[in-house]
Amino acid sequence: MLSTGYAIDVVCAVVGCPRSSYYYQRQAAGEGELRAAVEALALQWPTYGSRRITAELRRQGRCINRKQVRRLMSEMGLQVKVQRRRKHTTDSDHTFPRYPNLVQGLEIGYPDQVWVADITYVRLLTEFVYLAVIMDVFTRCIRGWQLGRSLDHSLTLLALRQSLKHHTPEIHHSDQGIQYAATAYTQLLLEVGAQISMAEVGEAWQNGYAERLMRTIKLVP
After folding, report:
1. Which of 26, 51, 75 is the last residue of a domain?
2. What is the dihedral angle through the alpha carbons of 172, 174, 180, 184, rounded to the nearest 10 degrees?
3. How far apart are CA 35 and CA 57, in angstroms?
4. What is the pTM of this model?
5. Does residue 93 sit within a domain?
6. How does pLDDT run along the chain (221 residues), one tens digit per residue?
7. Are 69 and 144 within one domain?
8. Structural domain boundaries enclosing 14
């Protein structure tokens, strides 16, 4: 019923307007308001895609699905094109000494017997940062970590120095990346009496403890 008290069928028949046109116009008017809301959010959050825009609209109390938001953003030219680039954290092309794998098949039975080290990247809103972590395999305790915007040697070296403040490993295991093979890093390990162990190039599974840790970190929201 219209606000005048006349049925929609009667009014449409009198003015010669199909019922479908009436409902389409009402829907279009409601969609115009939605378009304005989508545009406002896209301007406020220019890197947001349809998933995040949909979530924001729902927080505003709107009953909306992502498919509709994606369509509107496409029609309005508001789709975010994100170039997904794989970030490489391991550079094994260097002239520093290599060390054999000492942990393959080793039974680990007590704390600080083996530490594992690795680097991963963390995606932020507009950039990447890098995370270097050292973990004790037996206790799964994080002995040290460091965040940085570059992959220079200081990232891993600072994490190692933090780790060595209260503990010392028998074996330090990592990949053959330049950050772990660099003289400053290996010399510090040798000074505290640690044995250096490295996975073979291209064999990420040989540093499986650290790989699993990094996957776990990536799952944390």
Report:
1. 75
2. 0
3. 11
4. 0.55
5. no
6. 444 555 656 555 554 555 544 444 444 446 778 888 888 887 777 667 888 888 888 888 888 888 888 888 888 777 665 444 545 545 566 688 899 999 888 888 999 999 999 888 877 777 778 899 999 989 989 999 999 888 888 999 999 999 999 999 999 999 888 889 999 999 999 999 999 999 876 555 455 566 666 666 554 44
7. no
8. 8-75
